[in-house]
Design goal:
Blueprint (H helix, E strand, L loop, with lengths): L3 E4 L2 E4 L10 H5 L3 E2 L2 E5 L3 E4 L1 H14 L8 H15 L4 E9 L13 E9 L10 E9 L16 H13 L4 E5 L5 E4 L3 E6 L2 E4 L10 H12 L4 E3 L12 E6 L3 E8 L2 E2 L7 H14 L10 E3 L1
Parallel strand pairs: 8-9, 8-15, 12-13
Antiparallel strand pairs: 1-2, 1-7, 3-6, 4-5, 4-6, 5-17, 6-7, 9-10, 11-12, 11-14, 14-15, 15-16
């Protein structure tokens, strides 16, 4: 954990950052957050900072949360936070929350704060080369229930239940179906399938989070010459896929070689998955001339 954090315009020690136990966002899940990665390569870079900031501020707007700071102020705070903590490979967590401890659901008139921390961070899904996933009995929330495009704390109770079910069943991670039974996403990841050289991923209509790493994979796949199709995917299609992989800020590009006990790609990382991993790794560390605009130098 970086010893210094940013809270409402000030850099303070991590131990000083405290809220009451009755804090509204802790009690009711009314926080808004982002997950952002930085990487140390040729230099230290933050990956797709602008897009993450856009989603952070859009999430706050969807929930009508009062914004006290500009994107520019939060951007500079993140960059300076990494410098102060001398972090290379890290996970950055901006968090907007209601900083009050009054009982009651209403947030009208409540003060909102923004807190930013950064931690050293490696592989989110463990050190294994590939993982196993289980189709959850829980369905992915949809926009008739909660705004799925907003990265809100309360949304992730759905993901926690799915992840817990998968882990207790002996799998590494979960995948959720949408309300119509089509593939949606993992508990904290978007999903991709490869069939006969074509890359498929669920569309925005399948209640997915609009993943920034997902968008990166789509662009990288097309750059590498592959057709990428965003579409509804029936559950059974994943079992006959040539390759399967997750994408996400924390998960990066994680190969999947077992779905519900069915082996994928003969239990090995597929050719296209490997190619995307290698290209992604070069880009985020500044070792590629392509997609340089995705990097913000620290």
């Amino acid at each position: 954990m970086g010893r210094i954090v940013w809270w409402d315009g000030k850099f303070i020690d991590y131990e000083e950052a405290k809220v009451p136990i009755l804090n509204h966002s802790l009690q009711y899940g009314s926080g808004i957050f982002e997950g952002i990665r930085s990487y140390r390569g040729k230099k230290t870079y933050i990956f797709r900072l602008e897009e993450h900031l856009d989603r952070f501020f859009n999430s706050m707007k969807i929930y009508n949360m009062p914004v006290r700071f500009t994107k520019s102020e939060v951007r500079e705070a993140i960059i300076e936070l990494l410098r102060k903590n001398n972090l290379g490979d890290s996970y950055i967590r901006p968090f907007a929350f209601y900083n009050d401890d009054k009982i009651g659901l209403s947030v009208v008139g409540k003060p909102a704060s923004i807190y930013i921390a950064a931690v050293e961070f490696g592989k989110y899904l463990g050190e294994k080369e590939s993982i196993s996933i289980k189709t959850s009995s829980w369905r992915r929330i949809n926009s008739t229930v909660l705004p799925v495009k907003a990265k809100a704390s309360g949304n992730y109770i759905n993901s926690i239940l799915a992840n817990m079910e998968a882990k207790l069943s002996g799998f590494d991670e979960a995948i959720l179906l949408d309300q119509n039974g089509y593939l949606s996403e993992g508990s904290a990841e978007n999903i991709f399938l490869v069939k006969k050289g074509v890359i498929y991923t669920p569309s925005m209509s399948d209640s997915i989070l609009e993943g920034i790493t997902r968008d990166s994979v789509i662009k990288i796949g097309k750059f590498l010459g592959y057709e990428v199709v965003e579409t509804e995917i029936p559950r059974e299609d994943i079992y006959t896929s040539d390759e399967v992989f997750f994408s996400g800020t924390a998960a990066e590009i994680t190969p999947v070689t077992n779905v519900d006990g069915i082996q994928i790609s003969n239990g090995k990382i597929g050719k296209i998955t490997r190619e995307i991993i290698d290209t992604f790794s070069k880009i985020v560390r500044g070792y590629s001339d392509h997609f340089a605009s995705w990097l913000t130098e620290v």
